[in-house]
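Incident log, structure service

09:12 report received: a user says their structure output differs between two submissions of the same chain.
09:20 pulled the input from the user's history:
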Amino acid sequence: MNVEQQFSVPQGRFQLQRYPYHPKDPLRAWDAADELLLNYLSEQGLSPDAAADGPLDSPWILNDSFGALSLALHRSAPLFNSDSYIGHQALAHNYALNHLDSSTLTRQTPFEIPTAPVKLLLIKIPTTLALLEDQLQRAREHLAPDCRIVAAAMAKHIHRSTLELFERLLGPTRTSLAKKKARLVFSSLDPQLEPGPQRYPSQYPLEQSRFTISNHAGVFSREKLDIGTRLFLQHLPASEQPRTIIDLGCGNGVLGLIAAERNPNAELIFVDDSYRALASAEDNFHMGYDKQRSAHFIADNCLESFTDQSAELILNNPPFHQQQTIGDHIAKQMFSDAKRVLKPQGELWVIGNRHLGYHVQLRKLFGNCTLVASNPKFVVLKAVKR
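09:34 re-ran on a clean worker, output below:
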């Protein structure tokens, strides 16, 4: 067993890898908050190990990035609920890596709900308050009155505003002491509490267009159009020719939405790791075009599932983080996948911060890169598959 990937907790010892797996990746697939939570569950007899006494409740687990919690609690028949396609693939990968039977595991996307009242809710706290608010409000109505609610995060991500959300939406809340810079949050369900109406998805009018943009919580550019996308929209290519256009890492789908308008005979495909993002993009496209246009909405790890030479144009606003890890590894994979999926003479258009140096990567990969437009902070780049 690779020591660097060995996840040892009271529930057992497991091989745990990030997804997609790269042998030279120095990052672990878990953090100290995962360990702290699993140790607490063991101490309380709430997990399948020597400390457990009697039958155990199936935990409902939110935001389990690469499956560390679900893997360790596999004998409790966990309910894994994740917004991330990569998270779902990581869990399947790690179950197979440890030769575990996944028949008792239930995997859900964020809009799916439990079939019975939940008695144990486990949450890895997201960094976005809007996403946490939406998750807590959606979860509340599916919790049993005596539900045990335990959340975990690195201490730097737990603020007073975080605890106020738990108190406002669930009930009385307290925290544990910090250990290895991680902390737990404990809440009790208050049945008398009235959390108010749900605020998501939220909407705003898209400037200089006929469209209204709807965003689920946690989706990029939720409250207004960001300045990078604004620049990109001003320079999107237009054509009357029939062609396939992919909005890669689509978020709320605004790039594909406007590209469809400027390319009236094109087939549009929206791709993202986030199910919430895809739901936002689908809502926006259907609101904008009703039944006049059709499009495809695909959850994927970049363009992993796409066939070679299947698109003429790819539009890309690359994210620079995966969960809480910052880096350019996603952009690099997106660019590489785009080159494979583009037809000869197909084009990849990219928006990015100047300092990220995407032009260097694109020139190395495609052998060319053209500056389409720029402002003091952002650049729009084009690479052509020769």
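09:41 both user submissions now match this output. Likely a transient worker issue. Closing.
09:42 reviewer note: The chain is about 25% helix and 25% strand. The two ends are 44 Å apart (CA to CA).
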